[in-house]
């Protein structure tokens, strides 16, 4: 079941990839049903807040008519950054499943450990490495293509 939901997050990441956005996707699950989806839209919206997780959280809050998402799980293709980790804590999401680690900006295990138990008033369970190779691969492909385009533009 968990892999099925991460596959759905990967579909969202592919949407971002096709729009020339960093390919990160997220879905929020409530009672074993996806209630919201999101993908990175920072470039298209010119807004640093438009991360996949934030978009999915906003949609889930509207769907449930509550800011409390305490019965929800979040699946995201890349380890949440500190901003998204804060939003996850504030919205009381119960479980976070992520694909690839983010060694440059990860807010969960790589750079900071914001989900470490008893730091905040809400504890988030976290499981990393779910479909890690697929989640890493789409990011590698994206940045490889981006570098090729940059190289061609410099010629």
Describe the structure.
This protein has helices at 2-18, 42-45, 52-64, 82-90, 132-154; strands at residues 25-30, 33-39, 72-78, 95-100, 125-128. It is of the alpha/beta class. Strands 2-1-3-4-5 form a five-stranded mixed beta sheet. β3, α4 and β4 form a beta-alpha-beta unit. The longest helix is centred in the last third of the chain and has 23 residues, at 132-154. The chain is globular and about 45 Å long. 41% of the residues are buried. The mean pLDDT is 94.
The spatial strand order of the largest sheet comes to: 2-1-3-4-5
Annotation, overall tally of beta strands: 5
Summed over residues and divided by their number, the pLDDT gives a mean of: 94
What would you call the structural class?
Answer: alpha/beta
Distance between the termini: 48 Å
- The proportion of strand residues reads 15-25%
Question: Helical percent range?
Answer: 40-55%
Secondary-structure element pattern, one letter each? HEEHHEHEEH
Low-confidence stretches: none
């Amino acid at each position: 079941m968990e892999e099925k939901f991460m596959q759905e997050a990967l579909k969202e990441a592919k949407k971002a990839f096709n729009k020339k956005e960093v390919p990160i996707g997220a879905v929020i699950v409530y009672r074993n049903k996806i209630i919201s989806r999101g993908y990175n839209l920072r470039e298209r919206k010119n807004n640093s807040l438009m991360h996949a997780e934030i978009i999915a959280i906003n949609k889930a809050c509207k769907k449930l008519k509550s800011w409390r998402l305490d019965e929800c799980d979040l699946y995201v293709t890349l380890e949440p950054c500190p901003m998204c980790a804060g939003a996850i804590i504030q919205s009381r999401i119960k479980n976070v499943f992520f694909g690839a680690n983010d060694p440059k900006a990860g807010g969960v295990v790589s750079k900071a450990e914001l989900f470490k138990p008893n730091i905040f008033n809400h504890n988030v369970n976290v499981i990393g490495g779910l479909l890690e190779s697929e989640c890493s691969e789409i990011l590698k492909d994206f940045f490889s293509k981006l570098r090729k385009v940059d190289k061609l533009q410099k010629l």
